């Protein structure tokens, strides 16, 4: 059998190197998370640790497979058709990692939709089917032992897993866009926060979806090499980074929100002072704090503060 070394061995090597680089980004994001959010709920911290464990395991399986191909069987080009057990395990670990990320975003959509099961349930179902497909794929890889037999016998299972993953990504991104768009109130500052959240949702969703689609296209159009496998190494890292970036961006959005409300408060305060100087009311209010006008002004200011606080809380709720 003729083996295209650059598109087979080379694809695995480059895929492993890029996956390791992205794994370093995952570690940096996790360190940032625990520094910024030490008071986060235990469930979120456990999720982050689970993502880290799966990411490290995934990287270890990749390099175990590369060691077998490049060191243990050095010089034997025919061995590229053999499916190493560690390479098969990368499929399962990627699916488990992807499933956790999909569940996180499904829960987020469920809460934003005011616990609408008709929106959240289909996402969870498709994510579970993707995990099931990947589990079957891994089992068949270990059973068949060679890529040639795997491609001939159960090619559709691996294709279905990638297609389901793409469908879930599109569904999550679309739901987040629709729900965040419907949360607009017309308030400039709050709408700016919502725009930021929409932008992050599109960026993270598009990145993971693009990685899955490209891997699937290479699998369907170039089944005689392992470019699809090298790309598949990277998919799990993209999902891990998308979740961690979503968690870590909360602090940035909150700081931005605080600055916006601070600027708004300064402008409102300056406008009040300007009105008071023109009408001559300011000095009278300060000298006679018990006057009826003072109580009305205090009530007005109090109402303004309540409205601002409500909007800030709503903005923070949308951010996590």
Automatic annotation (TrEMBL):
**Record-annotated membrane-spanning stretches:** 12-34, 46-71, 83-105, 117-136, 156-180, 192-214, 226-249
What domain of life?
Answer: Eukaryota
Domain named DUF6534 is located at 165-251
Record Pfam families: DUF6534 (PF20152)
Compositional bias annotation for Polar residues = 294-305
Question: Region entry Disordered: which residue ranges?
Answer: 282-305
Q: Which UniProt keywords apply?
A: Membrane, Transmembrane, Transmembrane helix
According to UniProt, the name of this protein is DUF6534 domain-containing protein
Q: Which organism is it from?
A: Hebeloma cylindrosporum
């Amino acid at each position: 059998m003729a083996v295209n070394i650059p598109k087979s061995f080379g694809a695995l090597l480059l895929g492993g190197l890029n996956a390791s680089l992205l794994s370093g980004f995952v570690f940096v994001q996790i360190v940032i998370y625990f520094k910024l959010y030490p008071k986060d709920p235990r469930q979120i911290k456990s999720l982050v640790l689970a993502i880290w464990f799966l990411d490290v395991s995934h990287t270890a399986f990749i390099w175990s497979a590369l060691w077998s191909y490049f060191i243990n069987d050095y010089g034997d080009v025919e061995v590229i058709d053999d499916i190493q057990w560690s390479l098969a395990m990368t499929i399962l670990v990627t699916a488990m990692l992807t499933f956790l990320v999909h569940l996180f975003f499904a829960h987020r959509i469920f809460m934003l939709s005011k616990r609408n099961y008709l929106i959240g349930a289909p996402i969870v179902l498709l994510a579970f089917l993707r995990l099931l497909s990947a589990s079957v794929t891994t089992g068949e890889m270990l059973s068949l032992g060679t890529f040639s037999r795997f491609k001939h016998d159960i090619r559709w299972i691996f294709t279905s897993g990638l297609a389901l993953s793409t469908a879930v990504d599109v569904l999550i991104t679309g739901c987040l866009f629709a729900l965040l768009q419907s949360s607009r109130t017309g308030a400039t500052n709050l709408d700016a926060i919502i725009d930021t959240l929409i932008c992050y949702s599109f960026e993270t969703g598009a990145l993971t979806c693009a990685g899955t689609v490209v891997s699937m296209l290479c699998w369907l159009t170039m089944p005689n090499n392992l470019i699809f496998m090298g790309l598949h190494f990277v998919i799990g890292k993209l999902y891990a980074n998308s979740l961690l970036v979503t968690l870590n961006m909360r602090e940035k959005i909150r700081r931005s929100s605080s600055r916006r409300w601070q600027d708004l408060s300064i402008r409102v305060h300056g406008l009040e002072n300007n009105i008071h100087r023109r009408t001559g009311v300011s000095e009278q209010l300060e000298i006679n704090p018990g006057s009826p006008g003072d109580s009305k002004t205090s009530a007005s200011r109090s109402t303004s503060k309540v409205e601002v606080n409500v909007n800030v809380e709503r903005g923070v709720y949308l951010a996590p």
